[in-house]
Write a sequence for this structure.
């Protein structure tokens, strides 16, 4: 686990160091480089076969890594995997029903072109904290500011040109929406 501290003014470093676990690496940016530049930086940190970018206010639910790694190991054609998720309440506890932006009801490996078409037709199908990527497909990638507030969706579309996109409908991550979130200012459109 690599914690990329984007020049925060809180006690992130103290919290990470208090874990006293050599598998958790603290890496601080000397100055705030912005949301997408920091997320892009996270794609290049670490040495594993897979990449997960988990924003600081979101979380993984039990079984997240185990289920996704096992699925990707069984489906080498998949360049990425994402899942259902649950919103988090003010205390960080999963709250409400499973949210499924992908609109798929079972474990699925979707061909890249199909994922691209559905993403364009339906809007965002993927929640950032629910994603696991094969490192080889994002070694030279980034969340590009030029793509506007949907830089994540643009990245998923580029990855889908390199392989299939897998989906698990179970809630394996949690998304916190609050006024202080970096993404709180993005406008969203509800698709019915």
């Amino acid at each position: 686990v690599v914690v990329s501290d984007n020049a925060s003014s809180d006690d992130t470093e103290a919290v990470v160091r208090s874990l006293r676990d050599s598998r958790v690496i603290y890496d601080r940016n000397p100055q705030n480089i912005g949301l997408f530049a920091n997320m892009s930086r996270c794609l290049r940190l670490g040495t594993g076969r897979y990449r997960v970018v988990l924003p600081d206010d979101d979380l993984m639910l039990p079984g997240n890594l185990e289920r996704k790694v096992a699925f990707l190991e069984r489906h080498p054609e998949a360049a990425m995997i994402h899942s259902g998720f649950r919103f988090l309440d003010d205390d960080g506890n999963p709250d409400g029903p499973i949210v499924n932006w992908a609109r798929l009801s079972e474990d699925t490996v979707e061909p890249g072109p199909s994922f691209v078409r559905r993403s364009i037709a339906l809007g965002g199908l993927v929640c950032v904290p629910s994603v696991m990527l094969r490192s080889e497909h994002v070694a030279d990638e980034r969340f590009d500011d030029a793509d506007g507030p949907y830089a994540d969706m643009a990245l998923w579309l580029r990855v889908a040109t390199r392989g299939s996109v897998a989906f698990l409908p179970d809630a394996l991550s949690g998304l916190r929406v609050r006024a202080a979130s970096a993404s709180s200012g993005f406008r969203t459109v509800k698709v019915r």
